[in-house]
Amino acid sequence: MSRRASTGKERIRQFVNGTTTVPGWRADLLVIASLGMLVLIMPVVAETLMGFRGVAANVLIWMLFAVAFNLLLGYAGLLSFGHAMFFGGGMYVLAITMRELGPVMIVVGAPLALLSMGLLAYVIARLIAEKGEIYFALLTIAFGELVWYIGNSNPGGLTGGNDGLSSGMLPPFVEAFRGNLQVVVGSVQVDIYWAVALLFVVGVFLLYRIVRSPFGRTLLTIKENEQLARSIGVNTYRYKVHTFVISAIFTAAAGCMLVVVNQSVATSQLTWHTSGEVVIMSILGGINTFAGPMFGVFLWFLAEESLSGLQAIGELRHFWQFGLGLLFVTVILVAPRTGGYGAIKGGIRRIANELLGGK
């Protein structure tokens, strides 16, 4: 074997094993390219595997939600069972602003949603960040249920109570055309999916830069050994508060996108069930990898859209949660640390090493 072929083989092995050193700007381009490929194939995948092309935008929105949530769980080691308050809360702030002041006020409503949810997260984090992991999780449930109660009680007729809100949320640059929403800018008209895809790429890339920054590396130190982090002068309380706020802001951004796509908001999006769903999605895909939660969201929607439509298993087709639960248990038993994404990645790595003659 020639020296060039041997070198090339070694580079491939290093790439497969994740031991290659990629310069920062090249890594950024690789992430953007990967996200670009994801948004390009998602409509086709949604139509082929889930039977409905329109679900693709919802998948991307929930992927952003899951990655934002995992900044808290996967990198800071803090489990929140109340993140729906920021997801649904952002939706309500934007929806109420557009309904009360006019759809054109989306330019005010969206920033207001992010700001208000960030402020809410800051206040909550200041109160609970140092209460310990178990009490932190329980207190997020309590605050989440408090926000749900406020939304469900329909204060001033703003939230619609149990009925939610379902009108007056179509921005002036979005038009309904043959059952599909189109973004219209001048003479350019594109499906709303591509607007969602653009915001998704921007949001996920920003989160990627955060976890790759010194801030993100410090979070991992706190997660692995908080006492050690404190001993070297890290203000762990401040890092936890900031992480909670950042996670809430990106979560609210995902909620704002869902308002425009679905043209409605309901109190169910404020409940602990919604918070639990994003927890399961993240763990299913793997909280110890950046892409894991996105893979978990894909598995969730795949189970929901495909298993619920199966005809060959009789009445069981109405209980897609059974299939998802079985998948979740399997992943936890087989790959408790890496999740589904890590397990598949590890399998590919082992096969590639066998083919390349590595260990």
Automatic annotation (TrEMBL):
Chief localisation class: membrane
Keywords from the UniProt entry: Cell membrane, Membrane, Transmembrane, Transmembrane helix
Taxonomy, superkingdom: Archaea
Compartment annotation: Cell membrane
GO cellular component, one term: plasma membrane
Chain ranges passing through the membrane: 29-52, 59-81, 101-122, 134-151, 192-211, 244-266, 278-303, 315-335
InterPro entries attached to this UniProt entry: ABC_transp_permease, LivM-like
A matching Pfam family: BPD_transp_2
Topological relation to the membrane, as annotated: Multi-pass membrane protein
Stated name of the protein: Branched-chain amino acid ABC transporter permease
Organism name: Halomarina halobia
